[in-house]
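Quick one, probably user error.
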């Protein structure tokens, strides 16, 4: 048994890591026979196949087809859907359009607060098929509502199905609903379904202006089978430049809600590869499990008061689904851990199980490990980008071989950890060496208590490590027994944190692989008593080293592009009306054969003008080339009002397009401050009458045209002494089909780059004001 104890310990560790991932979502069987009152994945997939046939961004012809399809499906369920048409403008991005929200209601038996099932049906402009984002949400709601109605139970609460438009343009449909629809005035709770990838577990994220404990307790009462959540995730989510429709409900309507969103296979996000075929079926079932359980609970529960006076810390935990406790426990738990450490140190030194010299010595390998793993992860990824510059064209930062890189970096850091600790583990049980990691974890928890209470579940591994330390101090037993105890006590930490090692670089991009390295060092440090008990580590270290090389080789082998891993690229034609000059331009860092047909072999680096909009990730054109002019007719701009009242100049413009346009932008070429801005007679919100809108440079306003916009009316008020320097940028997403151009199409290994204006014919002209 002594010989096999380390092997058994290692197998337990691997099994727990596997369990931590497998426990986060259901398994799938598309052929499983279900009753009428259960969610049928086959029904959902049938709808998804129809919805995601083509790109269906707001304003496109296929957008209307998808709208009609959803309306028809709701009518088949016996509902009476309406389409809410409303112009909306977003303050944060100053984007606007004429939205078309799809709304239907299941009447409840009482007159209390209503429940909203929320998602959006528009895909991202201009090439995303939108199967995951958010076709998955649409079909999850359609099929769950069908199953719910099949129960023939009258809900206590009204249930509003709200499938918004123009979420991708700036949460505009949600704003139109919350600000202008009468149903928005009596909502108690929103369940929102979203995606930032095409697979992986779906995470629960709460949105509330108050405290979360009541929301969390009600969520757990709904008994979801696979809750995947922790209180740190919402904090991270709020740091990202991404909001969801639910954000509008919270900010504008003070309405509580839950986001259910998945981020796996992030490389498909907003791309032409966000397709029916690539959506993970298990992920779809995970979304369905959330909705079926929460719908059947919240349809009959009291939604009148989901606010609470306390916040909870919560995290996934073995066998309990979600472990949670109030914020008021954070400080006592922290103080208790510190006191317990001092007690253990006292007895450890008194019983000669810990030496002060050995304890201080433990800071050396742990500090070296932190610096080495974090530093090497940062520098190595930068080196990889130099070797593979094509990765820079994947703007969200998660490459097709991203999972191989995560595995390779984890193995590399693990190899480094064993190498760094090797000389310190000779004739050492790890009792001395675990003190430094525990102290470091406690320092982190002090910082968490001060700055980021949502991460306070980090104290839980500390307690298990302290129990392990106590076992090594007070119990004189065989090495095999101590290995077993230390391994078992490490299970909660591995279960909690192993998925997060993967989650951060997937959701935030591979440039954040250093976060995985940091987590690995922290976990390894607390597990030193386990690894110190492995007397034969050479074979394990060699195996880890070999696996590291193999995974880096595998990632390199898969660094190219093919039909299933398409290379994103971009091209636009820009006509500067005032200068009578035209250009080809691209956002690509690495031009390919497709873009070279426009740019040639020696394009000019950089942007040729400041009068352009940037991508979501704040990137601008990387190359351009002057070309011959085409007959692109710009819009007719009429100034119908220009008056001075007091200190302000009031200007009204009517823009009449002379060709089929998708997007109009007003761009500031110099700093300018607006007192008011409106489009189609809908004004940008102002909290106070004295508020102004200052634009240093760049986009003042962007408007996405729909079939309802024959002309565009823009009004704004500026200081009477201001000299506005504003350009109008007009874009049509028809470069591929425009008869003025002869274009060699992309190969099957290519796709339009997301997050940028692409495949567009653009005109720029200065406004004569």
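Nope, works fine. Designed sequence:
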């Amino acid at each position: 048994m002594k010989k096999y104890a380390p092997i058994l310990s290692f197998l337990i560790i691997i099994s727990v890591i596997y369990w931590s991932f497998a426990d986060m979502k259901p398994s799938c069987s598309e052929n499983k026979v279900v009753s009428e009152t259960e969610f049928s994945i086959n029904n959902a997939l049938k709808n998804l196949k129809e919805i995601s046939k083509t790109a269906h961004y707001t304003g496109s012809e296929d957008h209307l087809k998808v709208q009609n399809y959803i309306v028809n499906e709701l009518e088949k369920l016996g509902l009476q859907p309406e389409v809410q048409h409303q112009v909306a403008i977003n303050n944060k991005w100053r984007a606007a359009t004429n939205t078309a929200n799809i709304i239907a209601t299941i009447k409840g038996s009482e007159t209390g607060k209503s429940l909203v099932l929320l998602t959006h049906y528009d895909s991202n402009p201009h090439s995303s098929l939108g199967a995951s984002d958010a076709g998955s949400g649409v079909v999850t709601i359609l099929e769950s509502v069908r199953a719910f109605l099949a129960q023939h139970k009258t809900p206590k609460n009204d249930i509003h199905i709200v499938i918004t438009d123009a979420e991708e343009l700036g949460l505009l449909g949600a704003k139109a609903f919350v600000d202008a629809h009468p149903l928005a005035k009596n909502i108690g709770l929103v369940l929102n379904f979203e995606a930032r990838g095409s697979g992986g577990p779906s995470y629960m994220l709460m949105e509330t202006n108050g405290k979360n404990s009541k929301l969390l307790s009600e969520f757990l009462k709904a008994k979801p089978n696979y809750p995947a959540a922790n209180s740190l995730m919402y904090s991270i989510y709020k740091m990202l430049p991404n909001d969801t429709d639910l954000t509008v409900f919270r900010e504008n309507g003070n309405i509580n809600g839950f986001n259910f969103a998945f981020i796996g296979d992030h490389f498909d996000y907003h791309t032409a590869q966000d397709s029916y075929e690539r959506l993970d079926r298990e992920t779809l079932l995970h979304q369905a499990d959330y909705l079926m359980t929460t719908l059947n609970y919240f349809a009959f529960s009291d939604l009148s008061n989901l606010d609470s006076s306390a916040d909870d810390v919560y995290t996934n935990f073995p066998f309990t689904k979600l472990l949670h406790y109030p914020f008021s426990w954070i400080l006592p738990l922290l103080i208790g851990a510190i006191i317990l450490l001092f007690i253990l140190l006292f007895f450890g030194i008194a019983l000669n199980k810990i030496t002060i010299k050995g304890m201080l010595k433990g800071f050396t390998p742990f500090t070296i490990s932190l610096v080495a793993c974090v530093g090497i992860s940062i520098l190595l990824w930068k080196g990889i980008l130099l070797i593979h510059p094509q990765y820079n064209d994947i703007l969200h930062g998660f490459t097709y071989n991203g999972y191989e890189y995560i595995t390779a970096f984890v193995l590399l850091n693990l190899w480094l950890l064993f190498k760094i600790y090797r000389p310190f583990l000779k004739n050492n049980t790890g009792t001395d060496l675990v003190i430094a990691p525990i102290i470091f974890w406690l320092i982190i928890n002090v910082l968490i208590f001060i700055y980021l209470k949502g991460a306070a579940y980090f104290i839980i591994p500390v307690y298990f490590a302290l129990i392990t330390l106590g076992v090594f101090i007070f119990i004189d037993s065989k090495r095999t027994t101590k290995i077993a105890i230390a391994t078992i006590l490490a299970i909660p930490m591995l279960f909690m944190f192993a998925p997060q090692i993967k989650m951060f670089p997937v959701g935030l991009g591979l440039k954040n692989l250093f976060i995985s390295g940091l987590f690995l060092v922290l976990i390894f440090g607390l597990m030193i008593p386990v690894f110190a008990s492995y007397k034969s580590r050479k074979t394990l270290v060699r195996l880890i080293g070999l696996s590291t090389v193999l995974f880096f080789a595998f990632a390199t082998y898969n660094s190219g592009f093919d039909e299933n891993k398409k290379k994103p690229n971009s091209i636009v034609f820009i006509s500067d009306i005032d200068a009578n000059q035209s250009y080809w331009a691209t956002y690509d860092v690495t031009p390919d054969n497709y873009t070279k047909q426009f740019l040639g072999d020696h394009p000019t680096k950089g942007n040729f003008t400041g009068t352009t909009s940037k991508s979501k990730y704040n990137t601008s054109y990387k190359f351009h080339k002057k070309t011959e002019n085409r007959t692109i007719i710009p819009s007719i701009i009429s100034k119908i009002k220009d008056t001075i009242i007091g200190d302000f100049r009031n200007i009204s413009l009517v823009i009449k397009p002379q060709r089929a346009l998708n997007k109009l932008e007003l761009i500031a070429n110099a700093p300018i401050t607006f007192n008011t801005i409106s489009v189609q007679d809908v004004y940008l919100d102002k909290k106070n009458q004295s508020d102004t809108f200052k634009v240093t440079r760049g986009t003042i306003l962007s408007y996405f045209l729909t079939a309802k916009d024959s002309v565009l009316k823009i009004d704004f008020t500026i200081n009477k002494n201001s000299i506005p320097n504003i350009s109008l940028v007009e874009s049509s997403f028809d470069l591929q089909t425009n008869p003025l151009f002869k274009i060699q199409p992309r190969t099957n290994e290519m796709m339009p780059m997301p997050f940028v204006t692409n495949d567009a014919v653009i005109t720029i002209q200065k406004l004569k004001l």
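The chain has 20 helices and 25 strands.
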